[in-house]
Structures are given as structure tokens and as C-alpha cells.
Specification:
321 residues; alpha+beta; globular
Length: 321
């Protein structure tokens, strides 16, 4: 037992024997938060690379955005099976299995819808981020695992993209609960997403950010509005770095109506684009016709239109030019 004759001796003891460990703890904590910030920024950027391109290609309304647009597109494009599961202790929230039969996601059927949404995007994150492994489980026991953290970040960004948060909170002046309900996320998920998102732009201002988000939940948006105001151009600039892909636009258009032309997509007149378009789908064909100094290029699905039918559609458009 150690006894101290005065508070001064106690202070001296504390400084001599505990301060080095305290400083080490502070340094460790700072490094850990810096590492987490770097992880968040890296995964967030990778997620937006794929997501923003999809939003541009599909011309998705930012105010009407919902994660399901992107999720459905990804599972259809990659033939991913999605099924519910149930474990009596509810310890496994989600599961991804990759084997010779393909890729499948499963989610806890008894969880609330907002939790299921997060889980589905979490499992998609393992796939899109190209995590190595034959199976992944989202459970209460592995939240510190680096791949699970990456999948969590992916899920948060897909559910609540930067550009969508800006559109809803700053431009549309939606309340916290309106944003939460329209994106079908939990209060906790939106709260932490706003904290993490704003920390990317306001390093070292955690207390200011937390206060702004908390008052926003209470229905007062002045503080968070000012934070968004100062970063809005950066968010918009990042979003506009992505331009609609001609190949994806043509592919989507033809999948819907079976035919499109340079009247809709002028760059189809550049025949260098045809090879890439046809490589996307073996059923797609492309051609070009001339008449009196005018020309029109067109692409069609040979399963929906014969060569003659497609040519007649193109000739009609050419006639009306």
C-alpha cells in the first residue's frame, strides 16, 4: 500500500509514473482515429466511383434516390441470389457465400426493414469491393474486422450518398426524420453517417459537427445548413467528375425498347464505339445509313428486331431529319 502525505505528493507521483502511459494512450488513440479516417475516406471514395457512375448512367433523381435502384442493378448484372435466413439467437445479421454455384447474400428475416437494408448493402460491399474469401458473416462478434468495417462504410455510403444528403438536407431542406424515412435507414445509421461524412470535410471539429447533427435531429437545421453551405461546391464537383457512359446508356436503352440511334446518342456516329457496344451483349448489332448528305447510326437487339425491321426504323428517322 502506498500512502501520500499531501495532494502535492500525489500529483508528483501521478506525473512521474502515469503520465508516460497517458501520453502513449493519447498518441495511440490519435493514430487509431487517423487510421479510421483514412479507411473511411478510401472506402467512401471507392464506393462513390461505382455508385456515382450508376446514378449518371441511369439518370437517377437525387431527391428520389433509394439504394434499391443500385442494389437491384448489381444483383441482376452479376446473377446474385438474395434469400432470407433465420438463426434463433439473431447473432448473424448477414451472410455472403461465393462458391461454384455463384454468389448469394442472405439476411436475418426477423430484423427490422432498416436493418435488413443495411445488411443487404453490407453484403454487396464485400462483392463490389472485391474482398477475398469464400464466405463472410456479419455478426456481433466481428465488427472490428477490417473487411467488415469496409463493408459497413460501403453500406452507409450506398444508403446515404454524399450528393443525396446535400440535395435533401441543404437544397430541399428536409428534416432529419424526412431524410431517414425516404432513405429507409435507422436513426442511428443516419446520425453516424452524418458524423463520419462531415468529419471528412471538417477535420478536428468533432464537437461542432456532433452539436450540429444533434440540433438537426431536434428540428433545427441552421448549424448543419452552414456546414453543408461551405462544402457544397466540393460535393457537387466530385459528383460531376462522372459523366454518363455511352456504352451503358445505349445498353440500357436497347434493353428497354430494342432500338436506339444517333438521334438519341450522337456519339454513335463514331464507329469506334461500336465494337465496345457489341462486346457488351452478343445480341446487339450496329449499322449506319446515308441519304442526301445525312447519316444516322443505329443499334438494335437482334432478338427483338430483324435487320430489315431495324433498318426501316432508322430510315424513318433519317427521313424526318
Amino acid at each position: 500500500m502506498i500512502y501520500f502525505s499531501s495532494s502535492r505528493h500525489l500529483s508528483a507521483f501521478f506525473i512521474q509514473y502515469t503520465q508516460p502511459y497517458w501520453f502513449s494512450f493519447v498518441i495511440y488513440t490519435e493514430r487509431r482515429y487517423r487510421s479510421l479516417d483514412e479507411l473511411y475516406a478510401r472506402v467512401s471514395s471507392a464506393t462513390k466511383q461505382a455508385l456515382y457512375q450508376f446514378i449518371k448512367d441511369q439518370d437517377v433523381s437525387l431527391l428520389n434516390y433509394h439504394f434499391d435502384y443500385y442494389f437491384r442493378f448489381c444483383i441482376q448484372e452479376n446473377n446474385i441470389q438474395v434469400i432470407p435466413h433465420h438463426f434463433s439467437n439473431n447473432k448473424i445479421e448477414g451472410l455472403t457465400v461465393v462458391d461454384e454455384l455463384g454468389t448469394s447474400f442472405s439476411y436475418e428475416r426477423d430484423n427490422p426493414k432498416v436493418k435488413q437494408n443495411f445488411t443487404l448493402c453490407h453484403e454487396l460491399g464485400h462483392f463490389i469491393l472485391d474482398h477475398e474469401g469464400a464466405y463472410f458473416t456479419e455478426s456481433v462478434y466481428n465488427q472490428e474486422d477490417i473487411l467488415e468495417r469496409e463493408a459497413n462504410i460501403f453500406s452507409a455510403v450506398v444508403l446515404m450518398p454524399d450528393i443525396v444528403l446535400l440535395s435533401k438536407i441543404y437544397y430541399s431542406c428536409d428534416t432529419f426524420h424526412q431524410v431517414q424515412n425516404s432513405l429507409e435507414v435507422s436513426k442511428q445509421a443516419l446520425f453516424f453517417r452524418l458524423l463520419d461524412f462531415l468529419r471528412e470535410y471538417y477535420s478536428g471539429k468533432d464537437s461542432k459537427i456532433k452539436q450540429a447533427v444533434e440540433t438537426y435531429i431536434e428540428g433545427k437545421n441552421a448549424s448543419i445548413f452552414r456546414l453543408f453551405h461551405d462544402i457544397r461546391e466540393q460535393i457537387i464537383k466530385e459528383f460531376h467528375q462522372f459523366q454518363p457512359s455511352l456504352i451503358n446508356q445505349v445498353k440500357q436503352r436497347v434493353s428497354k425498347v430494342g432500338f436506339t440511334s444517333s438521334q438519341e446518342y450522337p456519339n454513335l456516329l463514331n464507329q469506334d464505339n461500336w465494337k465496345a457496344i457489341k462486346e457488351e451483349n452478343i445480341n446487339l448489332k450496329a449499322w449506319l445509313i446515308y441519304n442526301k448528305g445525312k447519316s444516322i447510326a443505329y443499334v438494335w437487339d437482334k432478338e427483338k428486331f430483324s435487320d430489315e425491321e431495324a433498318r426501316k426504323k432508322a430510315e424513318l428517322q433519317l427521313l424526318l431529319m
